[in-house]
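re: ur question from earlier - yeah i can do the single chain one, its not a big deal. heres the input i used so u can compare w yours
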Amino acid sequence: MYKNKFPSKKNLNFEEFSKEYIHILEKSVKKINWVTLNTIKNIIEKAIINKSNIFVCGNGGSASIANHFLCDFAKGLNVSGKLKPKIISLSTNIEIITALGNDVSFKKIFSNQLNTYVQKKDILINFSVSGNSANIIEVAKLAQKKKIKVISFVGFPKSKLIKYSNYLVCLNVLNYGIAEDFFQILMHFISQFIKQKHLNEKNISKLIF
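and the output i got, formated as C-alpha cells:
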C-alpha cells in the first residue's frame, strides 16, 4: 500500500469521495514549504522585471497548466503596461512538438525548443506529477548545462527531477488530479500576488482577479 495515495479503496458515495479528495488537497496546502515557494515567487518576479524569458513545460494535464501559466502571466500580469512578462510555453506548439517527436525523439521535444531560444538569466519552470518524465528530465538537464535556474513542481515523492532542479516543490501526493489542481493553485498564488503588488492601491478594489 502506497502512503499518501488517493483513493486507497473503493467508495460508492460521491459526496464522501469528493470530501476526501478536498481533504487530501487541504493537507497538501498545510505542508507547503513557504520559504521555497516565496523564493520561487521572487525569482519569477525578478525575471519579469528584467524582461528575461520564462520557459514553462509539462505533459498531458501538466501541459495545460503550463499553457494556463502563459495565459495568466502574459495577459493577466500586464497591468497598465508596468509588467510585460515574456512567457514561452514549450508545450503549446503542436506542430513543433509532433515534428520533433516524429523526426528526432519525443524525449527531445522540450529541450530542442529550449536550446533554440534560451538566453542568460532566463528561467525554466517544469510541471510534472511524477517528476520522472524523460522529456522533462532532458530539458532540466539542458537548462542546468546552460546555467539557467530550474524550478520544478512535482506531485510524487522521490522523483528524479529533484536532482536537476534548483528549486523544487513536492506535494507528496499520489494522485494526478489532486497534484494538477495544486499546480494550478500555486500558479494562481504567485500570479495574483505579483499582480496586486504592482497595482496602485485604488485599482485593486476595482478589478476582478
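Residues 78 and 84 are 5 Å apart (CA to CA). not sure if urs matches, ping me
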